[in-house]
Amino acid sequence: MLEVSMDNLQFGYGKELVLSGVNYKAKAGDFVCLLGQSGCGKSTLLRLIAGLEKSNPTQLMVGGKHVDGPSLDRGMVFQDYGLFPWMTAGDNICIALKQKYKDWDKHKTKEVALEWARNLGLDEDLFDKYPMNLSGGQKQRFATARAFAIDAPLLLMDEPFGALDAVTKALLQDTVLELWQNGKEKRKTIFL
Ligand SMILES: Nc1ncnc2c1ncn2[C@@H]1O[C@H](COP(=O)(O)OP(=O)(O)O)[C@@H](O)[C@H]1O
Ligand SMILES: [Mg+2]
Question: Mutation test of ligand 1: which of 16, 22, 44 has the most ligand atoms closer than 8 Å to its C-beta?
Answer without folding.
Answer: 44
